[in-house]
Amino acid sequence: MRKNIFTKIAAVAAATVLAVTALPALVSDTHAADGDYSYVYAGLTWQEYWANEGVYNAGDVTTSNEKDTHGEYDKGAFDTVTRATTNHGLHRGSYQCMATIDTEDGKKYELAGWTGDAKNQIMILTDGTQLSYSKGVITNTDGTTSKLSSYEVTGIKYVPVKVKTSDLADFEQHYRVVKNGEKLYGGFGENKLSSYEYTAAVNADTNGLKTAVKNADGTYSFSARQTGNGKSFAEQDISVAANITSTVKDATGSYGEFLRVDINGDGYGALGAMMQTVKWTYYGNDATRTNVVATYGTKFAADNWMHKSMGIQLGLTDSARCKLPAGYDGTGYWSLTVYALGYTDTTIDFEATDANIVKVKAPVSDTSKLSAAIAAADALNEADYTAESWAAMKLEYEEAVDALAVAEYQADVDEATEHLTAAINALVKVDAGTPSGSEESGNTTDAGTSDTSVSDVKTGDADNMAVYSLAALLALAAGVAVVSRRRIKDVR
């Protein structure tokens, strides 16, 4: 039983980068009622959310001890997603998901969101507590520290739900509930992704609404989601995704997927920040998309992701929640639908060819470009760049160094190279007379390219380019070898 731990939360101090003022809280007794029903937001597990959505293996919570090609335990069904990252995976999980941090000393922290900036990160817990966080180390209110061991993503934190008013008090004892007039909050602002704060306004026409039914044993079940055009937030009407493009990626399996579609464009950040989950529908060879062969549900981090500058990244994993029917290999006609809070459903139709389906991942064969990108980053001077853009680059740098040391597959090396190259490209020079710790010199620029050739790393500094070229030549000449390999986690 998950106790309702959203309590009244005081306004977060002003002058933070994200200007956070409030968190999800049970601060009001008001709710929108339609006859005998109340309309609220509730946190549901992956199993509860997908159980009646008609997807493959719906309702199954089977776990798996088998690692995928990215070295993660994502081959289960609709069980909890577990990660060991200390970097931005924690930030992304707090946008639309229920995330719990586990520490080496046995503590658990229920995460609501973040404030601060890249160099001064503050965790905000669901009870309103704010704790300093730095590279996996949490400073507790009594001054002691706890070190992260893993974090869990258990489900979606803001699902619109219709529940009998007579059951509401009991429902609140089982689920995290936010009532109308209270605050929805999540995320950590990074480049294209923005944190958010809205006022809940669920009604009978809210898109994605599920009906909660109390079972004889006191538990609850949830209907299939409905399609609607009503408000999700008091501040605005329902939104429609705009200025987005989609690309069916060539087969790499960088994150353990066998099929991947990326969403980019100027509008991807807004959609990505509100993305809750994704449904995939497979039509096989039916170009009319009339006869459904299979439908699959997904989980954040295991299948769905959004990058601060490189788009929304959606994949299907060969797992207990996704098996292709006999006689099909994944090629053919597909549709995927993004379910996002406050948005109409966003459906993308595409065709997958043999070139898009991952079969056997190639082992590491060439680390020269990754070595060159790392050398280029080593040659840069932190004082020349804004603190925000430098911190973003350092995150990718640390993951690139890890990939160089332990990656087993070429796709992982190539992905790390692409990300570090983009982060170097996005570095922002400090204006003359502006301290490097100031963010007044402007925002970081979009990476803009996925070509990771050595000559494409640019920072606008001719001296850096000279050093970079020399470092690249040295790295290529040395033929840097990977001497230790193990699977890496959360290169994204």
Automatic annotation (TrEMBL):
Residues 34-197, 204-362 form the Penicillin-binding protein Tp47 domain. It comes from Lachnospira eligens. It holds the Pfam family PBP-Tp47_c. Residues 433-456 are annotated as: Disordered. The lineage of its organism: Bacteria, Bacillati, Bacillota, Clostridia, Lachnospirales. Coiled coil: none annotated. InterPro entries: PBP-Tp47_A, PBP-Tp47_dom_C, PBP_Tp47_domC_sf, Tp47_mid_C_dom, Tp47_N_sf. The keyword rRNA-binding does not apply. Keywords: Membrane, Signal, Transmembrane, Transmembrane helix. This is 47 kDa membrane antigen. Residues 1-32 form the signal peptide. The chain crosses the membrane at residues 465-483. Residues 435-456 have a biased composition (Polar residues).
